[in-house]
């Protein structure tokens, strides 16, 4: 697998900007998608809602689109088929138990799905002509189960048909040096000073910047609204804080 950097986008315009900037793919984040719907990142978002987020993005760009499908929305076989239908390049599924699902960047140790049960989920979609790629994400490290458990899980998930392995971590010191033979992905949200090159040099193949674009929007919109409130007009926004109307028009179709 060629080394790739993928960046989050929650809508078609952001996806076009990611492509325009020269990145290799789009990440559709469950955290971001849930937040935009006013939901907690705890499995509240449905498969249909996530499909509705992903399809306009797939239609808007020519680079691969990867989607975070949390624990797989119950019937993982159907999930794989539905996202494959709309042209998604790959999906990431995690070994959280749906009843305990919460955002991995916070919180402490919670029960995980057994390695064997998660493997059964992967086995169900391991047919030879499957076009969509499966990232098997283990929460073992980020939830404090240790490196030995994480290694065991990843080795087993590979045997069960995963295309890419994602050991999710919060601390750079917990980083694993991947085994050769299968691609590895990493989400470096909590260690933003580490470069893509460094992660590639350690053996990772897919670097996922999973929520940066949405957080940039929050700050930009907050600053613009403060300016509008303070100045009582939009002149400051037009002069300093926004793209032009032509720029917005240029990112939408002519017809």
How would you describe this structure in keywords?
40% helix, 2 domains, 255 residues, TIM Barrel
What does this structure look like?
It is a single chain. The protein is of the alpha/beta class. It has 2 domains: 4-210, Alpha-Beta Barrel (TIM Barrel); 212-255, no CATH class. The chain is 40% helix and 13% strand. It contains 10 helices and 8 strands. The chain has helices spanning 12-20, 30-36, 47-60, 76-85, 115-123, 147-159, 196-201, 212-231, 235-241, 245-250; strands spanning 4-8, 25-28, 65-68, 90-94, 133-138, 164-167, 185-186, 206-209. The protein has an 8-stranded parallel β-sheet with strand order 6-5-4-3-2-1-8-7. Helix 7 links the parallel strand 7 (185-186) and strand 8. The longest helix is centred in the last third of the chain and has 20 residues, at 212-231. It is globular, with a radius of gyration of 19 Å. It starts with a strand and ends in a 5-residue tail after the last helix. The mean pLDDT is 95.
